[in-house]
Fold each of these.
Amino acid sequence: MAQEKIEEAPKPYRPYGAEIKETRPYSPCRAACPAHTDVQAYVGLIAQGRYHEAFEVITAPNPIASVCSMICHHPCEQSCRRCTIDEPLAVRHLKRFAIEKSLDYRRARRRLVEKTKGKSIGIIGSGPSGLTAARDLADFGYSVSIYERHPVLGGMLASAIPPYRLPREMLKEDIDDVISKGIEVKTNCEIGRDVKIDDLAKQHDAVLIAIGLSLSRSLPIPGVKGPGVLLAIPFLEDVAFDRKPSLGKKVLVIGGGNVAMDVARTARRLGVKDVSMVCLESAEEMPAWKWEVDEALEESIKINHRWGPKAVRREGDKVKGLEVVKVKSVFDANGRFNPSFDNDQTSLLEADTIIITIGQMSDVSFLKGSAVKLDERGRVEWDPATQMSSAKGVFVSGEVVTGPGSAIAAVANGHRAALAIHLYCQGEAIEGRLPVQEKEKIEQMPAQVVDKINKEPRLKIKHLAPELRCDSMVHFEIGYDEEEALKEAGRCRGCGGGAVVDQKKCMACLTCMRICPYGAPVVTSVSEIRPEYCQACGLCAPECPGEAISMVSYDVKEIRRTLPQTVGKIEPKRQEPVIAAFMCTHHVGVLGFDLPKNVRTIPVHCTSRIDVLDLLKAVEAGADGVAVVRCGDGTCKYRDVARRVEARVKRGQELLKMLGFDPGRIEILSASSGNGGNPYATVCADFSGRIKQMGLRGTK
Amino acid sequence: MIIGSQKPIEEIWEMVRDFRKVLVFGCNTCVAICHAGGEKEAETIASLIRMRAQQEGKEMEVNHLGVMRHCEPEYFDPVMDEVKKYDLILSTACGVGVNFLSDRTGNIPVYPGINTSFYGAVEAPGNFVELCSGCGNCILHMTGGICPIARCSKTLMNGPCGGTNNGKCEVSKDVDCAWFLIVERMKQLGTLEKLSEVLPPRNWSTSRDGGPRRVSLEHIRAYEEQESQKAATAGGKK
């Protein structure tokens, strides 16, 4: 009985093939994402112009998708199998494109969720982890209240991430999605100050502590106390809430992590021309992401590597600079952080303002004396297997327990906590029921496959020029336009979205093995298509005489089924022929360009996916002419496609001829988008003219 | 396996034109592998018939279906209720399947949707070649693994005729002379001297000349009910 209740769990949007994907190794991009976002699915949907479906796939596991589209460190990209070919897909930027294209859609789909569970949950903190848990628990049917000490929701996203990286209107869309489910919001409410934790635990059936790391660590060095020395988080909070921190003319940031980058680049945008950084690590050892460092250098921020802070030098009250000592090594023989210094080598880095950005910790002072125990180092005690603290019904999630990490990792932990709370509220055991983070993933692409793939460089993400972007907090990254997004999405090799064999239907005829340009199928007693080889081109499925091959990421029979609707009603007194045009969506612009009105477009991800039967069904549906519009010479993303498509079209023509039709009613057209103009409209119009000459079917 | 090839649509149309409900019934084994009569090809033929009917202005319901094999009742029995809703079954199985099914459909006719060509192999994708005639008395060990019965145009048993020409048969320059191949192969195997032995006239009673054939395995044929099923198949020796 209790087991059945779990079945009521919210059912997020499931793209085609979602079920089968769960039974197979994940694409490396998906496995790398802490929230296991199905990157392959949404990039594929973007490539087909199905932006709203892409949006659904993106947001299903991730309530802060807009935020992630701006600031995620995108482990998906680092693990993209395209890295072995040329460069990874610009996944984060594609996400941003799909989200921007879905703004009206997302606003229109916001709905209150019925509170069916009759229990309430209090969530302390509204950062990535708290928001995620809030959304999940609302979807489960609980009453959810969020307690946030700041005047706005979002946690660090609202109070610390500088607006030049994350425009607040993007964050607001994410928050509005969550809140619209009917969540009670208590801002300006600090637990400990305004409400006691034990009281909160009594008010709710369960409480989640998701307070993140809100305190900056300082340095125990002489001179650190006094004006002119700031800590990172208060500084960033001042900026976020427009309290204009006072900085001098020479700002020095201590630290080499990503928050240090935020601080330095923010200082630069507050009008300080001379911003420098000092860190223990060399350029290679620095924990900040390389792209952050590169962008900071573009903004003429100087980085002093391998110096350790020794003392803040002051003249009277005023900061004069930081005395530093040379670093011999940062890590010890075991690779642990354990810096050693050469005390003979010191230097003075001049500065009138110093901002310390060397790490964060969480503020758990409100838990002292409560039922939630802290360990000897002052951290919350918790059980990772249940997400529960030492107090029954009080759960923890996010960086307060996992330590510093990424926003998306906090999202993943928020999901776990929400499920744990749900199980707890339903009186069920939690241990062993929470999802495992590690997923089996598809192996790297074999070298012989890599050799067969054309190199296509990643579409550069454009930024405002440094001299323009340093003037203000304006978001400095420029989104893809539709043409760019389609082109970039077309680079995806569809890992994990490829061919699968129905072993009940397979008769081991070897056709797939003979036809596959990448050597993916191996036929023993039945065929098995190896996902690490498969490029998801779709060439094999129409060739399989037993129809045993299907594709994970799309329904191979969808075209056939929907053709009558696509072709539409055939007007007996029509003047222009009805043309069914199968168009490769790798033509950038197929989706954007206007085509003559009499052309009914059937977008396909590659013409390799078109079956003879599809061509025939278009004729059966009443089309006067059937066009297969493929990429121009040499631009096809896959191998051996042209030859096979020609053979299929020829077969279709032969069959038409048997019925007494002019075989020219089916034709291959070729177009390239690179040469300007609208070649698709031109080739389709020419074909339409030829069909008109042949006569319109069923008219006099 | 058995190789089939599609019939021209006109021939099919002449067969089906007077029926109102037609099922194109595919067989998903041999004839599917040779892209002639699997379920997918059945769907293609169904589509062609529908279009032909439309051209003629005929009201016709044409659907398709497929099962693993038409030559074993266990495969089609589960769909027989559905199959029997039609006025005509156009089977795209080989002739074996058409015969076998036809004996089990009562007053509903089963017509052949394809031509059954031969026993063959897949020489290359889409290229099927006849290599055996099923004569019932194999002598391939005497002829270097190349069958003169299936592959010699005249079924000669003791060397080529005068029509052999640089390795090709006089029937067509696209046909290899089987005896040329036999000699070359046996040279390679070092068994050419075997050919000095004259093969006696063959006993063709194991082939078609002995009438319809049946193979009966007593050790396998263990079930009583199979006996009754056997009776339903015409033409076999009981």
Amino acid sequence: MKNLSLEEKEREFQAKIDADQKIEPNDWMPDEYRKTLIRQISQHAHSEIVGMLPEGNWITRAPNLRRKAVLLAKVQDEAGHGLYLYSAAETLGSDREKTIDDLNAGIAKYSSIFNYPTVTWADMGTIGWLVDGAAIMNQVPLCRCSYGPYARAMVRVCKEESFHQRQGFEIVMKLAQGTPEQKALAQESLNRWWWPALMMFGPNDANSKHTAQSMKWKIKRETNDELRQKFVDITVPQAEMIGLTIPDADLKWNEERQSYDFGAINWDEFMNVVQGNGPCNKERIAARREAKENGLWVREAANAFAEKRKARQAS
Amino acid sequence: MSNKEWPLWEVFIRSKQGLSHKHVGSLRAADAEMAIDNARDVYTRRSEGISIWVVESKLVTASDPREADALFDPADSKVYRHPTFYDVPDGISHM
């Protein structure tokens, strides 16, 4: 075994990253790299889990059986995504129960978008179209993330997300092509979700404290502003195609940049929601806490059953 | 009743007959049977598998990445184990 100084190890580590080699769980890594990944992966996992709540809200009220089956499948996928990610975080030595308890204690962060309420059926469409659309935009580059287990989880997640976006777009499109009331429902939903969706990419690059280091480590492959711009450029024509209006008076095509210019984001609102004061932050955390407490007997019963089965197999 | 944390399991899936089981990730479950049921729901929601193996993570013995050089070094010098090491004259086929 080679005896290297910390500096030499760090240099070798960065050289591996620069050569586009993946880092695997038992490989040496700087403490900060491990910490950054645990933070990011667990926040990502929490977002998937909390993300089930706004949509779970509509499962019993889906307008027909097809929509209900699809929504159930989508919400089940989100649970699956959360599980892949908690497992990926565990490969870095994070304690799964503690990670979950941090969420339930309101200490851990998750995507601020899930702190907005889903007040109409159209929101199920808009979430799939915009929120999952933005999530895909964020997650596709993560498939090339330097940490192997995270990258592999993202490949799986991205494959599944594209169904999420399409089913959402289908809902919005049907409403937009429906009666004037249905179209108004779709437009009203777009009006509420557009800006929070743009906030999903995080603060502007100049104000993003983790971006530079994360890019150097190839945990992050594109900056917040680059991804946000891509999302706007892709989504605006989709809205136009189905006859909906993006709620931004400053939105216009920039011939020179071959991109859309768009209005200023209300970062005060973003910070306020991140700090726990969004419309549903308390409700979401309370729901997660209740789920853990009310599920205790199930976890205990599973342990008891496992012991019983073991005893039976032994005899 | 015990509220002990469920152990961690590594999950391996055979995607179709004729292929080997491949590691896909891990999950928590109270015992092996439950791990298989959970793996079905977590890793094969889109017919990704026809067979599942689960192994409790703590039972896996792994080589130490810090010793990878020494461990795999013996193969490095044995280029003659590869067919490309040998010159085959023009005109010789099926070799």
